[in-house]
Amino acid sequence: MSTTLTRQAAAATAPSQPPAVGSHSPSKTTSKRATAAATFLRAVAARLGSGVWKVAGILAFLALWELGPTYLADSSTRVFLPPLHDVLAAWGKLYESGTIQGHLAASLTRSVTGFGAALVAGISLGLLIAWYPRLNAILNPLLELFRNTAALALLPVFTLLLGIGEESKISIVAYAAFFPVLLNTIAGVKTVDPLLIRAAKSLGLNSFRLFQKVILPSAVPTIFTGIRMAGTASILVLIAAEMVGAKAGLGYLIVNAQSSFLIPDMYAGILTVSLLGLAVNFLLVALERHFSRWRTAVGAASS
């Protein structure tokens, strides 16, 4: 009996052994999981909250468009400003008949062709002008003259020289989209950090590799700013050109519906132009993020 009591007393007074290195108690593991789950939920809530606020303005505008002409306007105003459901019904009829697809395809063909030509010419010439100061001194006054001349002001000139066919419309789109790409390309190249260029030259890079590895990646964000501006300009100028002289396209659809007093069809064409511009902007933003991924990676690595 005395031996048993002695052993129990020794066990009670003996110091407790510390936990083994690398072992985790269940309470700590549960706490870490709860913290991670709470962080994830907060991030999801923040994203949903920002998305709700972004959509709220659009939903409010659409609700005003639907309810305003119905309840706040008189009958004469509703003729010229039909509610949203009438416009959507007209758009559905145009879609079922294939009319909206044909006009959209015509406008997209002209816009993409002119926009592509402007990209190739604007980026190529912008790189040359930014890299060779003497060429910049020669061409800059001429470029400033044409840059400050509105594209639509030259539409009669393009029509007289190229006719009323596709060439004049593609050319006016290319002209309108050329200068935003050109000027932002020049600005993007000129704002490259000189230390990066000196470091690349000290490593023995030739001119081609210097453009490929240093100048172009650094100038991409500024160039894409011009590309986004050019994308918007190409659509707006094309719609205006199609309103003046065309037999197909969204601009022709809008002006023809207006002259035929098909007001819901006119608004359906305007809505299609808005959605087209929004889709083009989203596409260009996605391309910009794709070509600028190295900046995000470098920023994340440095932080």
UniProtKB/TrEMBL annotation:
Major subcellular location class: membrane
A GO cellular component entry from the record: plasma membrane
Entry keywords, A to Z: Cell membrane, Membrane, Transmembrane, Transmembrane helix, Transport
Protein localization: Cell membrane
UniProt entry tagged with the keyword Membrane: yes
GO biological process, one term: transmembrane transport
Membrane is among the record's keywords: yes
Extent of Low complexity compositional bias: 1-15
Renumbered residue ranges of the record's region Disordered: 1-29
Stretches that traverse the bilayer: 51-72, 112-133, 145-164, 170-189, 235-255, 267-287
Domain annotation ABC transmembrane type-1: ranges: 104-284
Membrane topology: Multi-pass membrane protein
Similarity comment: Belongs to the binding-protein-dependent transport system permease family.
PANTHER family according to UniProt: ABC TRANSPORTER PERMEASE PROTEIN MJ0413-RELATED, ALKANE SULFONATE ABC TRANSPORTER-RELATED, MEMBRANE SUBUNIT
Descriptive protein name: ABC transporter permease
Organism encoding this protein: Arthrobacter terricola
